[in-house]
């Protein structure tokens, strides 16, 4: 009886540890420059072909502070904003820029950004940003059976321009998406 109980406990612990381990995504030999954002390099393979196979693509874009400032300056000129409107927009600009995370998933229930956790580290391994879950929400229909959801997250200001390693973990799919971002 004791042996049977021991075997059951051992199998249960092995089964529990197998559930926690993330699915390893294929990696590029050298990080590949993202076609949509000049500051982002993909470490893990994360393409449209992958979405056809497993219905999971997560894209990351980085928008530096200077780009965001130029955008609101152009909007101010184009829309004839009052100074109070410009000041309100200017005061909400994050000093380090923003990260834009776009997820494409099969099925609307899988496109909830609350399943994503984000971690950013510098070259020395110092944690710059750690977010356990993104603000919850739902996706919208995008293409065939894929749904899309997008979130913008303020990024921390780094003292000098550097490469930051970012890992986005999807708890539902148990996959890690890895990126390198060159900050401004």
Q: What's the gyration radius in Å?
A: 20 Å
Secondary structure category = alpha+beta
Q: Helix proportion of residues, in percent?
A: 25-40%
Number of helices: 4
Keywords: Signal
Signal peptide: 1-18
Concise overview:
This protein is α+β, with helices and mostly antiparallel strands and 184 residues long. The chain has helices at 2-20, 48-54, 65-79, 83-91, and strands spanning 27-33, 40-44, 56-63, 98-106, 116-121, 127-131, 140-143, 146-154, 163-170, 175-182.
Topology of this protein?
Elements: H1 2-20, E1 27-33, E2 40-44, H2 48-54, E3 56-63, H3 65-79, H4 83-91, E4 98-106, E5 116-121, E6 127-131, E7 140-143, E8 146-154, E9 163-170, E10 175-182
Antiparallel strand pairs: 1-2, 2-10, 3-4, 4-8, 5-6, 5-9, 7-8, 9-10
Describe the structure.
By secondary structure, this protein is α+β, with helices and mostly antiparallel strands. It has one domain (23-182). Helices cover 27% and strands 38% of the residues. The protein has 4 helices and 10 strands, in the order αββαβααβββββββ. It has a 6-stranded antiparallel β-sheet, with no helix packed on it. A hairpin with a 4-residue loop joins β9 (163-170) and β10. The longest helix has 19 residues, at 2-20. The model is unreliable at 5-9 (pLDDT under 50).
């Amino acid at each position: 009886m004791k042996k049977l109980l021991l075997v059951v406990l051992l199998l249960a612990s092995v089964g529990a540890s197998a559930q926690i381990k993330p699915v390893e995504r294929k990696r590029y030999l050298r990080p590949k420059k993202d076609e949509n954002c000049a500051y982002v390099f993909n470490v893990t393979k994360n393409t449209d072909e992958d979405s056809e196979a497993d219905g999971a693509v997560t894209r990351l874009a980085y928008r530096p502070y200077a780009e965001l400032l130029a955008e609101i300056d152009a909007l101010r000129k184009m829309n004839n904003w009052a100074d109070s409107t410009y000041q309100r927009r200017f005061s909400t600009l994050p000093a380090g820029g923003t990260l834009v995370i776009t997820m494409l998933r099969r099925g609307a229930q899988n496109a909830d950004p609350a399943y994503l956790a984000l971690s950013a580290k510098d070259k020395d391994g110092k944690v710059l940003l750690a977010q356990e879950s993104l603000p919850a929400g739902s996706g919208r229909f995008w293409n065939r059976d894929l749904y899309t959801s997008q979130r913008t997250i303020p990024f921390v200001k780094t003292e000098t321009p550097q490469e930051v390693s970012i890992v986005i973990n999807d708890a539902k799919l148990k996959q890690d998406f890895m990126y390198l971002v060159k900050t401004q």
